[in-house]
Amino acid sequence: xxxxxxxxxxxxxxxxxxxxxNQLCVTFGGVLMxxxxxxxxxxxxxxxxxxxxxxxxxxxSQRRAELLAIRPALLIEDTDIxxxxxxxxxxxxxxxxxxxxxxxxxxxxxxxxxxxxxxxxGTRAFPGADRQRFHAIIVDELAQRGIAPLLISGNWAQxxxxxxAAIQTAMKDGQ
Length: 175
Known about the structure:
There is one protein chain. The chain is α/β, with parallel strands linked by helices and 175 residues long. It has one domain: 3-Layer(aba) Sandwich (Rossmann fold). Helix content is 53%, strand content 13%. It has helices spanning 17-28, 36-43, 50-69, 81-92, 97-101, 128-144, 156-173; strands at 5-11, 31-33, 74-78, 108-112, 150-152. A five-stranded parallel beta sheet has the order 2-3-1-4-5, sandwiched between helices.
């Protein structure tokens, strides 16, 4: 059996990644790789020290590898190392060599624009101008890794339509 399509949804907080990841899995019959950073924040806390961010990245990577080992036809990943590395840069002011060395392995990255309302859910940290700076850091992190993402923007329906079209195109292209 050949490897399937691996799509990663990335971008700043409160842009619909988690909701859409779930919807896309239902629509296309894919397997969901949830964001471990969210689980960490909700169960352990939001003190994202360098050690904590490296642990988040390592656990997320391990769980993704376990899912990829079953060779799903479609894996939808709710964020990846790009987002964790960007969190490090936002909180600690520099790139982390350990996180920078971890590869982003998705076939396609869908980058969610910060053009939706920011909602404080108790774990989110970057409203207003910080949200735009965080987006710029994610864009730079993608560029540093040689990743050209597809930008997903607009209202919720437009985002879903764009993401579905991207997956359909990738499936037709055999990626």
